[in-house]
Amino acid sequence: MSADTPSSRPRIGVYPGTFDPITKGHLDIIRRGVKLVDRLVIGVATNPSKSPMFTLEERVAQVRRETADLDHCIEVVAFDALLMKFAEAQNASVIVRGLRAVSDFEYEFQMAGMNQKLNPDVETVFLMADVALQPIASRLVKEIASYGGDITAFVPPAIAEEVKARVKQR
Question: Residue 12's CB: how many other CB atoms inside 10 A?
Answer without folding.
Answer: 19
